[in-house]
Each structure stands twice: as C-alpha cells, then as structure tokens.
Amino acid sequence: MVLQRTFARYAERTAFERPLTSGVAYAVRVLHSEREQFEKHQGWTIKRMDILEQKPVHKDDYEPEALEPSPVQEEYAPVIFAQDTVSHVISLDLLSGKEDRDNVLRARASGKGVLTAPFRLIKTNRLGVILTFAVYKMDLPSNATPNERIQATAGYIGGIFHIQSLVEKLLQQLASKQTIDVTVLDTTNQSYPISMYDSSSNTSDNDLSYVSMLNFGDPLRKHEMHCRFKEKAPWPLLEMATSTGILVIALLLGHIFHATMIRIAKVEDDCRKMMELKKRAEAADVAKSQFLATVSHEIRTPMNGVLGMLQMLMDTDLDVTQQDYVRTAQESGKALVSLINEVLDQAKIESGKLELEAVQFDLRATLDDVLSLFSGKSQEKGVELGVYVSDRVPKILIGDPGRFRQIITNLMGNSIKFTDRGHVFVTVHLIEEVMDSIDVETESSPQNTLSGFPVPKRRLSWSKFRSFSQEVPICPSVSLISDPINLIVSVEDTGEGIPLEAQSRIFTPFVQVGPSISRTHGGTGIGLSISKYLVGLMNGEIGFVSIPQVGSTFTFTAVFNNGHSNLGEFGGPQINTQSILSTSEFHGMTALLVDPRPVRAKLSRYHVQRLGICVEVVPDLTYGSWSVLNCGMVKIDMILMEEELWDDSSSSLPIFLNHLRDNDPGAVPKLFLLTNSVSSSRTSNGTTTAIPSKPAVITKPLRASMIATSLRRVMGFRNRTDLRNGETSRLALRNLLQGRKILVVDDNDVNLKVAAGALKKYGADVVCENSGSKAISLLKPPHQFDACFMDIQMPVIDGFEATKRIREAERSFSGEYGRGNGSQDGKAVNCHVPILAMTADVIQATHEECIQCGMDGYVSKPFEAEQLYREVSQFFASQTN
Amino acid sequence: MDVVQLKRQLIAFTELLFGEGFLDEQFNQLQQLQDENNPNFVAEVATLFFEDSERILNELANNLDKQSVDFKKVDAHVHQLKGSSSSIGAQRVQRVCIIFRNFCNERNVEGCLKCLQQLKHEYALVKSKLEALFSLEQQILAAGGSPSI
C-alpha cells in the first residue's frame, strides 16, 4: 500500500511537473457500510468540511482534531493522501464541502477533469480553484455511461490552484506587473461574475481594458481575464504590445492547466498499470507457496519410505564399508527431509496457514530436550552449553511447545554452528524481571560470562523492542490469554559473529551471510525468517546484537498462558516426567558447589536445585570460603566442582574433608566433577588418601534428569530401595494368593497367558477366559472364584459392562437369598466377587470410573508386584482374618 | 561348544537385546515367572505372541488394503498387538504400535501403511532374535547346563 509519507514525497518530488498547482491530494470513495472499517484502518474519523467553510478560521487556529466528524451520509470521499503543502485536508470529506461535492460528482460522472468555481480555500483563506479527476478501479470504455462510471469510482485526485499566486507568477515572468492591472473573473454565471484575481488598487472603470477568455479545460466554466493599464491611456503601439503580451499570458495559463491535466491523467494511468502488476505478482506469490507446499509434501512421503528402508538396511548384515554408505545415505536423506520441512514451513507462513497449538507443556523439560539434542556437538567442539530458566517462570505453561522448540533449536543450532570456543548460553526470564531489575544483567564486567569469553551487551539485542520502549502493558490485544506469562529468551554465543554489512538482512528468507556459508556450514538460511514469524505468532519480537569475532546474542519475547490457572482444560501427558524428578529421592539434600564464576555457578545451581537439592555456592575450597557457610550445621551430601578447579584444589580439599569428618564422622560427601567434554574425563593422580581417587564425572550440558542419573549411580539409591520393596511384597503376595481361585479375563491371548503366569507364580489357582460374556456366565453367584482380574478394553462386552451385569446378577441374587433364608450367618460373603480392572495405561481408566461400575480397584498391565499386592490385600486380608 | 562358552554367549546376546531396545524389563519379569512348575513359560508366551502377531498383521494388511479403511477396526487390532507386545516386553514393536494408533486417530492411511511396514519389520526382527535366544537356551540345556543366568 502507498503510505501518506510516500505520497507526499512523490508529490513533492514531481512538483515541477505541474508548476502552478499548490498541492495535490487524493481522496477515496467510501460507502457508509465501509465507513467503520475504513476509520479503524486509518486511525481517524471522517471529518466534515462545511462547517469550516461557513465560519472560516484564521490559519493559525486551524486544528484538524477539533473538526466535527462527518454526519451519516450515503457515501464519503475522505482525503487520505495529500502533498505536504496541503496536508491539513487529510481526513476531510470532500462530499461535505459545497464546491468540492459538486466537483466530485461532476468529475466522476464525466470521467474528465472538472474545475470548481473559485472559493476561499480552507485554512489559507485564499481564493482558489480545485481541479478534480476521478480515479476508476478498472479501465472504462470511452462511451461508458455516467452510472457505470460512478460505480467504478475508486477515488479522486484533486489539484489545488491558488489563483492569486498563479497569476502573479505569470505576471512576474512578464515583468509588467507594475503597469498592468489584471482581473480574472469566473463568468460561468453571467450575472454574478466572481472575481478570482484582482491586482488593481483602484476600482475606477477604465474603458481601455482588454478582455480575453480563458480556457482551463472545463467546458462548463467560463473565465475571463480583464487587463488594463494602471496609468493613463497608453500609446497604441504599447497597447498592441501589451495586448499581445496579455494574449501570451492567457495562452500560457491555458497551456499550463492543460499540461497539468494531461500529466495527472498519465500518472493516474501509470498507477493503474502498477496496481495491475502488483496484483499479478501477488497471485504468482500465492501460487508459488501452494506449489511449494504441495511439492514438499509429495517429496516427503517417498522420502520417508527411503529413510525407512535405509533404516532396515542398517539392521541387516553389512560390512563396515556398506554400513558407512548406508549411514551417509541416511544422513543425506535426513538433511533433505529437514530442508523440506523448513521449506514447507516457509510456504505455510507465506500462505498464512501456520497456526499455533495451545497445550500444557513444561518449558524446562522442553529446553532440556533441545539441550540433549546439541550435547553431542557441543562436547565434540568443547563448547560449553547451558540453559538457565528463572525461578519466576511457572512450571507449566500453555502454548505451542513444538514451535517454541523450533525457535530455540534454530537459534541454538546457528550458535553452535558458528561457535568454536567459549559457550552457548540460553537464558529464560520473565520480561518484568528484565525490565525492573538491573541485577539480571550480570554481564557488567565483560569477563563474567559462562565461559569467560567476552560477549556483546545482551541489552542491545532487545533495544529495538516496542514492548520495552513504550513501557505499555505488553500485548493487550491477546484477549485469549487470561494469565499471560511474558517470557524473554536469549541465546548468547561467543562465535564468529555476523558481519556488519549482513546484519540488516539476516531475517530475510534464503539469505545467508555470504555465499560461502552454505558450502561450509550447510543450511538454507530460512530458519531465522521462520523463527521470526513464529515469534510474531507468539506475540513476541526478535532481535539480536552481534560483534564480529566476539559473538552474537539473539533475544526474543513470547507470550504464553500460565498453565496453573486453568488446569484440566488442556490435556498434556508429557508433563509427568519432570515433576517426578523434583519429588525424587534427593529432596532435602545439600550440595556444595565450588565454582569461582558466578554466571556458571548460577546455571549449575539451577539444575541441581530442580532435583530438590539445596545448593551452597563457594568460589573455592580455601578455608576462608567455606568457613562462612557454617558447615558444621548443615550436612553436605555432595560436592560438585568445576573440572578446572580439580588440580588446584588438591591441597585444600583434604582439609575441607577432614573438617567435615570432625563435625560428623562417617558422613563423607560424594565428589562430582562437572566437565565439558567426554574425552577429558580424568583419572586422578589420587596420591592423597583423603581425596576419593576417582571422582565421578558429570558431563555438561547439565540437565536435571542427567544429573539425577549420575547422582543415583554414584550414591546407589534406586537399587536398594527397589529391591527391598520388591522382595517384601513378593513374599506377602505369595501369602495372600496361595490357593486362591482366580478368574482372568482378557481378549488378548498373550496378555492372558502372562497375567495367568504371574498369578500362578504366587500360588494362585488360575482360570482363563477371553471374553466379557464368558466372564459373566462364569461369575454367577454363588461365586466359586475368589477374585477376578478383568481387562477393560474388550470387543463386544468390555470390562465395565461385564462388571455392571455381574453386579446386577449379584444384587438380584442376594435379594432372593435374603428373602428366602434371611442372612444371619456369614454366607452372604459369596454375593460379591472382587473384580479388579487390568489396564495398560492408567490415564485411560481412572479409579473412579472403575468404582462407579462396581469394580474394586485396578492394576496396571503388565503386573507390578507392589501394586498388585496393594490392591489384592484390600479385600483378601479382610477375608483371611 | 561347552556350557560355559554357550552361557557366555547367551549373556552377551541377552545384553545386546536389551541394549538395542528389542526387549525391556517386562521380558525379565516373564523370565522370573518361569520355574520348575512352568519350565517353558517364556517360550510358550512367545509362541502365543508370534501366532497372535502374525494373525493381527495379516488382518491389518487386509484392512488397510480396502478401498475405505475402517480405522476403528484397525485401531482395535493395533491395540491388541500393543497389549501383547507390552506383555512380552517387545518394546520396539510396542512403540510402533503407539505411533500407529496416532495415525489411526488421524485417519491417515499413508501413515498407517508405513507403520504396518515398520511393524512387520520390527516383528520379524524380534521374532528372529527371540528364536535365536531360545535356541541358545535349548543348546545349553542339551549340553547339560541350566539356561537361567
């Protein structure tokens, strides 16, 4: 679209083409039905002009905002563009002005340029005429009817002429202003000629005047020019010369008007042509996107076949060379598929088909996943990789984890690709945190970074964000989000940076820093443009700062919903894993983290704390550092130490350990080294007895799950507890189930066999059935079975249904039984057989659902001894007593 | 080959099966259920599993071959296979089943066919591995040893 600025600039620049117009303006035709949308789009209301005409204001008082909005009309012609000299007419409705209305109506019905009667122009109050052309949406045949023309009208171009300045300009050119009086009259209405220009000082009539007709190109208007000498009657010679001069002036005036009109018509024509071309280009663009989407999809399908077959080929017997070939083919295939996916995304973006999900997800777990993805590469390169999420970011967010992951993966991928030393560091904060605290900005000294390499000032990467500069509440437009969480995510690296000349175009699709990049690093250069678009979808912004040979920091913001505000509305099965971690066996332990670099210590602490471990940080192990910690009071369960400190601390560590031992004999903390690369995992020289000769190594990038695994391995938790529990419950189960007659119902023979096998193992007497109906016929009161394990998902009659029917039969039986014999003794026991549901996934069958249809509980398939014991003991224990 | 060597081979092979993810913890559980009263338990379950799987794979192929696929039916079959594979601990088969069911929900024939292909492949793999395992055990028995590790 053309903007006012563009229009004004263009009009300014081409002003010499129409030297006597004092301004041009463009108004569009707006029907009343479109008014509201139009006004919203433009950001102002259509103003009325007539009031302004009735009581003209002094030009200094002119205030467009104070104008009254236009009353309801059938249609409007508000000015949307104007040359700067007449910019005050923007938003005025031409149809509300008397002269203008007349002009507009005539112009669009005739298709020709039309002149107004001279009138006082708004604001300047000078006399002028306006030349109006109609602009049509399409090419009209020359014989089009007025009605057709009106229908096709898109808008109006108006040229404004100040008569006074016009004539003065001309007369100046002839240098004879002093001696000649010129009066220009509009004589359309013969009886009331309107004076358009009058330079004479005295009004005394002078017969010696020369009258000539002026033609401004509008047949309906007649203009006369009266010229006479100011002084006394001149010599005839002079008179002749003067009249010739006046004739020349008249001709010139006419010519200028004519030329202006032709010029305007030509510009208008060009504009139409451009619009046509633009339309065609847009259509071509849409077609391209559709083509890309289709072709990408069509390529992907067979590619999956190729990849699948390659995978199978890998599993066959291959020699080393063959395996190498297959692996290469597979990798190339994967690269191709990821490329296609990117192109497909781009195509989706261009055709506007990309939409975001809204599901619950754990941001930290998502980031851990991405981290794992790059861990191999970072270890290989020896680049330190880290993710830090502020504690104030809620655990569960609602948004599109896949797309968020895509952005992060893209940014981290780029960073790792271009970084050969130092670090890549991802931080997630709330925007509020960054805005109102300075201490998030930990990079006050350039050396205080994750790896010690300097980085560009992170703050610069978001310096252009609107949400920051305006200080307005971020994203008020997103009404869907009830409890918005505004995140700001930075990916910082110490890589080679982006060359200054390339920085302006890195978000453009398919543009890479240089032609050699794709050769050395691969990729299409499409990722950043996709990321930018995705960030936009998340109501965020993306920016960066980059210094060549120092590094780059990309920062983006995104708005998510807080996952805790409306739990249960969005199902999210993937959130379990991490929550189990935090309630893990490490809860309540204390770790001592030895790290002299604050940024890195903060990162390590974040991950260790996620396991529920309390973390104390000291810069080193000298007495002065740890004595302030009050180590005597707190039991230190483990020491985490950066690898680089290991060599230096060989002297201070034993002292420290001894100190601990003095306080609490027998409690020796486990020692862990945090290291960057696999290769350097060290074998210690271990000469001093107090130092554990081989400390356990935790390889970065740190992730909560991975730390947990390492800790578990070294501290030997799991096995002990698991085994003990397993053994006890197994014995108890045997006691409970020995000799019991149990019916197992499952339509799956394999499951049936396994379940039966498990129960037999504990001494039960098992009968198997494979359908709900058979179960119903076998489970008729009085019962011969002690219990029944029933699968829920069975064809024809499922577990719930079968149980309901069995319970019904039991009820009617107990009714009869009760009526017949009375229920004095304990024989009524047989009226209720315990039925336990067997289910593969716990989510599918909730406990309530089972109870509702009359079941007594449920066990998960395949059987787990402890759970089986828990459920079975509920009803067997009471019976055995 | 003597018993010791065979046993070593068995251990290595079992480790490989677990390491490559063909089998999971559930298979261990099955092996623990096998005792004097039930000496061929694992092999019996496996045989059942093979029969069941082959039947289901055929059904699936037939169903997906039709002009209009009855996804409900397909899903039920896959559910069956998922159940039996998880019972025996054939976790790679089980995983494909999970993906398969997603495609069923999406009513994506292409995806289903791809999964079926993969299922067949995974099934064939786990079958051959299990058979190899059993034959090793038989050899140990024949050589006079006990296959329990």
From TrEMBL, chain A:
<keyword id="KW-0472">Membrane</keyword>
<dbReference type="GO" id="GO:0048831">
    <property type="term" value="P:regulation of shoot system development"/>
</dbReference>
<dbReference type="GO" id="GO:0005789">
    <property type="term" value="C:endoplasmic reticulum membrane"/>
</dbReference>
<keyword id="KW-0597">Phosphoprotein</keyword>
<dbReference type="GO" id="GO:0009414">
    <property type="term" value="P:response to water deprivation"/>
</dbReference>
<dbReference type="InterPro" id="IPR036097">
    <property type="entry name" value="HisK_dim/P_sf"/>
</dbReference>
<dbReference type="InterPro" id="IPR036890">
    <property type="entry name" value="HATPase_C_sf"/>
</dbReference>
<dbReference type="GO" id="GO:0009884">
    <property type="term" value="F:cytokinin receptor activity"/>
</dbReference>
<keyword id="KW-0812">Transmembrane</keyword>
<dbReference type="InterPro" id="IPR004358">
    <property type="entry name" value="Sig_transdc_His_kin-like_C"/>
</dbReference>
<dbReference type="GO" id="GO:0043424">
    <property type="term" value="F:protein histidine kinase binding"/>
</dbReference>
<dbReference type="Pfam" id="PF00512">
    <property type="entry name" value="HisKA"/>
</dbReference>
<keyword id="KW-1133">Transmembrane helix</keyword>
<keyword id="KW-0418">Kinase</keyword>
<dbReference type="Pfam" id="PF00072">
    <property type="entry name" value="Response_reg"/>
</dbReference>
<dbReference type="InterPro" id="IPR042240">
    <property type="entry name" value="CHASE_sf"/>
</dbReference>
<feature type="domain" description="Histidine kinase">
    <location>
        <begin position="294"/>
        <end position="562"/>
    </location>
</feature>
<feature type="domain" description="CHASE">
    <location>
        <begin position="1"/>
        <end position="226"/>
    </location>
</feature>
<dbReference type="GO" id="GO:0033554">
    <property type="term" value="P:cellular response to stress"/>
</dbReference>
<dbReference type="InterPro" id="IPR011006">
    <property type="entry name" value="CheY-like_superfamily"/>
</dbReference>
<dbReference type="Pfam" id="PF24896">
    <property type="entry name" value="Receiver_CRE1"/>
</dbReference>
<dbReference type="GO" id="GO:0000155">
    <property type="term" value="F:phosphorelay sensor kinase activity"/>
</dbReference>
From TrEMBL, chain B:
<dbReference type="Pfam" id="PF01627">
    <property type="entry name" value="Hpt"/>
</dbReference>
<feature type="domain" description="HPt">
    <location>
        <begin position="38"/>
        <end position="133"/>
    </location>
</feature>
<dbReference type="InterPro" id="IPR008207">
    <property type="entry name" value="Sig_transdc_His_kin_Hpt_dom"/>
</dbReference>
<dbReference type="GO" id="GO:0005634">
    <property type="term" value="C:nucleus"/>
</dbReference>
<dbReference type="InterPro" id="IPR036641">
    <property type="entry name" value="HPT_dom_sf"/>
</dbReference>
<keyword id="KW-0597">Phosphoprotein</keyword>
<protein>
    <recommendedName>
        <fullName>Histidine-containing phosphotransfer protein</fullName>
    </recommendedName>
</protein>
<keyword id="KW-0007">Acetylation</keyword>
<dbReference type="GO" id="GO:0009736">
    <property type="term" value="P:cytokinin-activated signaling pathway"/>
</dbReference>
<dbReference type="GO" id="GO:0000160">
    <property type="term" value="P:phosphorelay signal transduction system"/>
</dbReference>
<keyword id="KW-0539">Nucleus</keyword>
<dbReference type="GO" id="GO:0009927">
    <property type="term" value="F:histidine phosphotransfer kinase activity"/>
</dbReference>
<feature type="modified residue" description="Phosphohistidine">
    <location>
        <position position="79"/>
    </location>
</feature>
<comment type="function">
    <text>Functions as a two-component phosphorelay mediators between cytokinin sensor histidine kinases and response regulators (B-type ARRs). Plays an important role in propagating cytokinin signal transduction.</text>
</comment>
<keyword id="KW-0902">Two-component regulatory system</keyword>
<keyword id="KW-0963">Cytoplasm</keyword>
<dbReference type="GO" id="GO:0005829">
    <property type="term" value="C:cytosol"/>
</dbReference>
<dbReference type="InterPro" id="IPR045871">
    <property type="entry name" value="AHP1-5/YPD1"/>
</dbReference>
<keyword id="KW-0932">Cytokinin signaling pathway</keyword>
<dbReference type="GO" id="GO:0043424">
    <property type="term" value="F:protein histidine kinase binding"/>
</dbReference>
